[in-house]
Amino acid sequence: MTILVTGGAGYIGAHVVRLLLQRGDVVVVDDLSTGRADRVDHARMVRADLSLAAASYPLAELMREHGVTGVVHFAAKKDVGESVARPAWYYEQNVGGLLAVLRAMESADVSRLVFSSSAAVYGAAATDGRPVGEGATCAPMSPYGETKLVGEWMCRNAERAWGLSWAALRYFNVAGAGWSDLGDPTVQNLVSIAIDRVRRGEGVPVFGTDYATADGTCVRDYVHVADLADAHLAVLEHLAASAGDAAERTDPVFNVGTGAGSSVLEVLAAVGEASGADVVPLPVDRRPGDPASVVADVARIRDVVGWDAKRGLREIVGSAWEAAVAGSNHPPTGAP
Ligand code: UDP
């Protein structure tokens, strides 16, 4: 088994690469625009940009040369605000990147793909506070979310046209560290921001305290990056086991979350517990575009793939804290 991992030098990708290396060969393709080569120093690493500008890159040759049997496609831009400012670039990078991967897979006769999608595909469909299921009508609220939804359509069409065997994982709020050297996310999230602030002795901004939630702050479904990495392995196995069984398969789009929501204040309380520090919430205005509550319905991945998250908020925040403290080679600005 040789798996090609695009974006394998990123935060989530590197966790998956480390798990895959325990079972077989891994080839990483990453442009290192945000990834770090030192995260994947035991895998074969090829530096390349997959977007339209570099579609001529001989990805199919690379797949043939290494006997690649499956692809996990992480390489993408994922900053929602940036996608609003630079929509064309997001389409080029995310849609163009997947296009290059699918073309190469078809040409090299590689049929298995796990695609990184996002809860951002739901947009307005995930804002009513109830857990959102994969059958909801997607209404992304950003170009980023649109590129992920288009990606799912591209995979579905490739399945019909030439037999791609695929799954898309719709990630909810990924945080934490499975290994302490892999703990710093490329795009900061509430957990990493809160930890940085606390380490500098600063309060943590809370974007809105008047939402219609139990404590007035936004609720999200935080999933441990190590659980998310396990989900990729489970889905790859599921694809291998259900090969040739396309008619039997449900729509291969899966939420990856825990099914439980935590509020911003609950996250800050967990940071206080992990750090032993006083965490001071600083209420500020709502952040534009933030839905009150986004929680995954996780029944499908549990029933079809047999995967379930094992770690909760305490482990997520605890592991992120340990990684931040251990990572003295990447200290937050102004830290002692
Ligand atoms: N948040 C916050 N303060 C921060 C960063 C985030 O209150 O400094 C809130 C944000 O409004 C959202 C939640 O924390 O409700 C998670 O935000 P994040 O950016 O981590 O992920 P998102 O849910 O936006 O993808």
TrEMBL record:
Every NAD-dependent epimerase/dehydratase domain range: 3-242
Catalytic activity: UDP-alpha-D-glucose = UDP-alpha-D-galactose
Protein name: UDP-glucose 4-epimerase
BP GO terms, sorted: galactose catabolic process via UDP-galactose, Leloir pathway
Entry coiled-coil feature ranges: none
Pfam families for the chain: Epimerase (PF01370)
Required cofactor(s): NAD(+)
InterPro entries: Epimerase_deHydtase (IPR001509), NAD(P)-bd_dom_sf (IPR036291), UDP_G4E (IPR005886)
PANTHER family the UniProt entry points to: UDP-ARABINOSE 4-EPIMERASE 1, UDP-GLUCOSE 4-EPIMERASE
Keywords, sorted A to Z: Carbohydrate metabolism, Isomerase, NAD
Homology family: Belongs to the NAD(P)-dependent epimerase/dehydratase family.
Pathway stated in the Swiss-Prot or TrEMBL entry: Carbohydrate metabolism; galactose metabolism
GO molecular function, one term: UDP-glucose 4-epimerase activity
NCBIfam families found in the cross-reference section: galE (TIGR01179)
EC number(s) stated in the UniProt entry for this protein: 5.1.3.2
